[in-house]
Amino acid sequence: MPHYAMVIDTRTCIGCTDCVDACRMENSVPEGLCYDWVVEITQGRYPELKTEFRSERCNHCSHATCVAACPTGASQYWNGSNIVVVDATICTGCKACIAACPYDARLIMQPQGYIGKCTFCVHRVQYGEDPACVATCPAHAMHFGLLDDPTSNVSRLLAGREHYVLAPETGNEPNVFYLR
Amino acid sequence: MREQVLASVLANPRVEPHLAIWGWEIATYLFFGGLAGGMMLCAGTVILARREGQAPFAAYRAPLVALVLLAVGMTTLFLDLERKINVWRFYATLRVTSPMSWGSWILLLVMPAMALLALAGLAQGFPALERLLRRLPLVGRPVVGPIIDLCVALRRPLAGINVALGVALGIYTGVLLSGFNARPFWHSALLGPLFLVSGLSTGAAVIVLGARTVEERHLFGRIDLGVILVEMALIALYLIDMLNGDALQHQAVALLLGGAMTGLFWIGFIALGLALPLLLEAASWRRPVAVLASLASVLVLVGGFLLRDVVVTAGQRTSWSNFHNQFNAGLLDRLRKDGENPSGRF
Ligand code: SF4
Ligand code: SF4
User: What is the ipTM of this complex?
Assistant: First the structure.
């Protein structure tokens, strides 16, 4: 069971949103929609302010509620991994999965009507390449790899640095990690 | 201070309203689904209790009326699908973890069960239609006639099946929403019973409106009164449950307590859709007044729809991600008003 993870360094990210553009080019995302997005969080009290950039997307959850809620099986794990994909030939556009995703990572492809989302660029990953956003990041803030392999870059980064995931309380076991 | 802004744009309904998950179509479907379930329950119970004489509309006509109304609901459900060509995929599989999958199979069982019970009551309920069916060219005599006779012979078992499926359908309309842990407003097990009871109330209201005898109207008016009381208790439990919950649930219930849905919920649903019909039905508890009964039933129907509409809309406004991306969607609206397209810049 390959267990893929993305590790994003919030200290090196400069918030340039190149990952968003790279994804749009790579996946021909319809105009006005996006599979990933960047938020800027500023905390503290002037003059002691701290800003963090975070590139967010589908977390390819190990317990994906979107897959559980899909009535047709269109939302599924790719090849027994934790990568969640949607089969557009099966999807009815019932939107149960959008309601079921606690990270609001899914959207309706317009005008086709099936559900779109980040695929971890599975079409690249299966040939051993990094997802487009990771490959493009000019600050080298994004990393991608296998968690089951203790020598992979993601495993080593997570072992060595403090990190967090978004809302672990959802119970979905998200697999996009942020380094502090 | 903690401030979060979007450096890029987010394709979700808070930013792009046209990406909203479910609109009036699903509210309408849940309304008619619950109502049809309630009518199945009423019709089946009347037949099982051998009270046909007392409640002829419920026993003989309600199944066909419910079938037509459910068909309306299923039509709006179909309208909501974004990729209609794949609708048959619902019936290519049963996903045990997906309430919606269960629901589509329940609907597939409900339709024929209702249709058979409708056939059983056709001779008394809609005699002209029955004669027409029996006289259909080719199939009338050899096929339809014997089927009708069989349904009449099996009325009581059919009634039992309708009661069971009516309850399943009614609960399902609530469980469909309460199964989503991602939407705090929906994530309460009370939605199942609440929608079942509300469906029973709206079903009884249709029977009151359709009944031709004072006795039947009065009977179902009284039943509805009890059902409304139970519904009020469930609403109270739901609110208490949410108020005693965690921050997500507080944020969710705030929509009803001062937030965007407050007016519609308290004035539209609670006051006009529950309390007023309750008073009207109580006023005619001893002496039936036709006008009051009809008015109460219409209000119950409006209230039943408002409940679905409020719950469907409010659920989508609540989300875990609200806590992480607390940006002000109103600012984007201002950009739009100034003639800029916030997503167009990226
Ligand atoms: S983040 Fe949402 S869409 Fe992605 S796997 Fe998890 S539940 Fe599904
Ligand atoms: S919209 Fe498509 S992928 Fe999502 S739950 Fe429905 S059928 Fe499954």
Answer: 0.91
CB pairs under 8 A between A and B: 172
Q: Which two tokens stand for residue B247?
A: 């921050």
pLDDT in tens, chain B (346 residues): 777 777 777 766 666 666 788 999 999 999 999 999 999 999 999 999 999 999 999 999 999 999 999 999 999 999 999 999 999 999 999 999 999 999 999 999 999 999 999 999 999 999 999 999 999 888 888 899 999 999 999 999 999 999 999 999 999 999 999 999 999 999 999 999 999 999 999 999 999 999 999 999 999 999 999 999 999 999 999 999 999 999 889 989 999 999 889 999 999 999 999 999 999 999 988 888 889 999 999 999 999 999 999 999 999 988 887 765 655 666 666 766 776 665 555 4
Residue A74 CA to residue B202 CA, distance in Å, equals: 35
Partner-chain residue, chosen from B7, B22, B99, that has the shortest CB–CB distance to A38: B7
Would an 8 Å CB–CB cutoff place B123 in contact with chain A?
A: no
Indicate the DSSP class of residue B138: T
Do A69 and B1 count as a contact with CB atoms less than 8 A apart?
A: no
Task: Compare all CA atoms of chain A with the CA of B343 and give the residue at the minimum distance.
Answer: A32
pTM score, two decimals?
Answer: 0.93
Q: Pick from B26, B29, B83 the residue to mutate for testing the A interface (most A CBs within 10 Å).
A: B83
Which domain CATH number covers A102?
3.30.70.20
| Structural domains in chain A (count) | 1
Interface of A with B in 103-122 (CB under 8 A): 103-104, 107-108, 112-114
Residue A60 φ/ψ region, left for φ over 0, alpha for ψ in the -120 to 50 degree band, beta for the rest: left
Domain boundaries, position A51: 4-179
Fold (CATH) for B18-319: Formate dehydrogenase/DMSO reductase fold (1.20.1630)
As beta bridge partners, residue B53 has none
Report the alpha-carbon distance of residue B284 to residue A75 in Å, rounded.
Answer: 53
